[in-house]
Amino acid sequence: MACGAARRRTRDFPRGERRQQGGGVSACLCPVRGGAVMSENLPDPEIIERLEAGLERMPKLRREIFLAIRLDGLSYAEIAERTGLSVEHVERHFAESMSALCDAIDGRNSAPRWKRILRRVVERWRR
């Protein structure tokens, strides 16, 4: 729940304001998780290294969507038109890329969404 709020806050929070607050590299991507500032003790070079590793682990389409939004400044609709996906699918890919990069900054390898859901179902079933 908190990560979703962080993703929405990151998407809606203008980049210039994040930079004015001195948040560094990670604040531009995922400023808050669970109420605490992420990676507050990591130097920027280590954060960049973790981000690069997280980007390399992403599927190609998801990585391209993330980079198109963050670096090229394209809208969801523009990306949807270029890729042939719906706007909702572009939003989903972007949200999942943000979650994966938040996990990469935190030093966690995130399991695919279907595995996390399956684990929850199995845990409930075993109770």
Any overview of this molecule?
There is one protein chain. The protein has a two-stranded antiparallel sheet. It has a single domain (2-126), classed as Arc Repressor Mutant, subunit A. The model is unreliable at 13-28 and 31-37 (pLDDT under 50). The chain is mainly α. The longest helix has 20 residues, at 87-106. Helix content is 71%, strand content 3%.
- As an assembly, this protein is single chain
CA radius of gyration: 15 Å
Count of distinct structural domains: 1
Overall CATH class: Mainly Alpha
Task: Give the strand order, joined by hyphens, for the main sheet.
Answer: 1-2
Tell me the distance between the termini. 24 Å
Listing every helix as H and every strand as E from the N terminus to the C terminus, the arrangement reads: HHHEEHHHHH
Q: Can you give the mean pLDDT?
A: 74
How many runs of DSSP E, i.e. beta strands? 2
